[in-house]
Amino acid sequence: MKPNICLSILFLCVLSAVSASATGIPDLSNCTVTCAYTGPGHPVMYNVPNGMGSGFDHCNIGLDVIDATIHVVLKDGNGVPMPHHYNSPDISGDLQVNLMDVGLFASDYFGAYSFRADLVPDGVLSLSDVGRFAMALGSMCP
Question: Which of 89, 82, 29, 39 is nearest to 59 (CA)?
């Protein structure tokens, strides 16, 4: 009885691993992470909870300012880099979702397809995108 259970569990594990590879579920051990700074010392970044401070591209080692930007390449189960895109209802890029963004969103919605207005990333501008935009209206970054 026990050998049958062990074989069943082994079969399920192999099946799970094969299906994860075939479906493109990311395997973090295949991902690549690099830092722009490769010299000696430890880059220090000053930040406070409200978002003020420096970014990765403005770190310090002593009094020297260096770029310690971290680059991540996410790969699928087959080791192929996966494209990933960032989208935001702050279309104008002024760190707040306001009337300027409403105009830009409306021009995209009633014009040709534009990824920046596809807030439910399904390849179509629809009422789902309008709802997601409306929920964000009035929000701002700290």
Answer: 39
